Amino acid sequence: MLINLTFIRELVRRFYEDEVPRLSAELAYYFLLSLFPFLIFLMTLLAYLPIPHEDVLSVVRQYAPEEALHLIETNIHRIMDYQNGKLLSISIVGAIWSASNGMNAIVRAFNRAYGVEENRPFWLARGVSVLLTFGLIFVIIVALVLPVFGKMIGLFLFSVFGFSKEFLTLWNAFRWVISSLILLIVFTALYYFAPNKKLRCANVIRGAIFATIGWIITSLAFSYYVNNFVNYTAMYGSLGGIIILMIWFYLSGMIIVLGGEMNAIFDCEREGRRRER
Questions:
Q1: Contact by Cβ (8 Å): 15, 51
Q2: pTM: predicted TM-score of the whole model, two decimal places
Q3: CA-to-CA distance for 228 and 233, rounded, in angstroms?
Q4: How far is Cα 149 from Cα 56, in angstroms, rounded to an integer?
Q5: pLDDT one-digit tens code per residue, 69-98
Q6: Dihedrals phi, psi of 133, to nearest 5 degrees
Q7: Alpha-carbon span 168 to 173, nearest angstrom
Q8: What integer best gives the mean pLDDT of the chain?
Q9: CB 178 within 8 A of CB 147
């Protein structure tokens, strides 16, 4: 199915009928709620690896608005100042539970998109959310580690074999391509496992591609807009960073939900039916 006027009309219809803005706001709330427990877990865990947290932040710095990034960095520095083994064990529980709530909200949004009921037992539905959370944590760590180690490998090859500076530039660009591919894998797994419906990877890849490209473009555009045209601190004072972070999460949630809605439309077209309300 090609993206045509009929597809756009159906997507707009679903946008309002499925209350995508409300679902995006719900996801933004859960993203914010799980962010700092997750950061505590992630940064405390990475403290045991030979990776400076500044290198990790450089990955986030590509997309996040400056004020939101400042808020995240401030809390990360506090976390690193007080990190210990007990903090790691406590943060695991908090991060998994909070993030699984966000995953659970995503599951409900996708079930609504496909028009299916959540008839799985509570423990199974929550287990799927927890497993998706573990998978997300693992993939995020890999996504953060690869660019860092990729930089080390590129510098090593540059110094040992005497490659030109153009090689180092191409190598750095290749590292970010890998990060984008990992992001695509995350969205593909999310769209495949989350709905209470049997799907194939080929059935969800288009929504995953949309979510990957859409999230990167939206994040960069929003970051540019915030950094150059508005001053939320002047309007909201010390809450400016939180407001920017919430808006960023809101836009991210909307991109994720729209990707699921697109996959649901493709699914209806493939089965030769139209979802009724």
A1: no
A2: 0.76
A3: 13
A4: 11
A5: 777 777 666 665 655 555 555 656 666 776
A6: -65, -45
A7: 9
A8: 76
A9: yes
The CA distance from 40 to 35, in Å, is 9
- Looking up tokens 């288009």 gives 206
In this structure, are residues 68 and 32 in contact, taking their beta carbons and an 8 Å threshold?
Answer: no
Q: Which residue has the tokens 């153009």?
A: 166
Q: What is the SS3 string spanning the chain? A: CCCCHHHHHHHHHHHHHCCHHHHHHHHHHHHHHHHHHHHHHHHHHHCCCCCCHHHHHHHHHCCCCHHHHHHHHHHHHHHHHCCCHHHHHHHHHHHHHHHHHHHHHHHHHHHHHHCCCCCCCHHHHHHHHHHHHHHHHHHHHHHHHHHHHHHHHHHHHHHHHCCCHHHHHHHHHHHHHHHHHHHHHHHHHHHHHCCCCCCCHHHHHHHHHHHHHHHHHHHHHHHHHHHHCCCHHHHHHHHHHHHHHHHHHHHHHHHHHHHHHHHHHHHHHHCCCCCCC
With beta carbons less than 8 A apart as the criterion, state whether 129 and 110 touch.
no
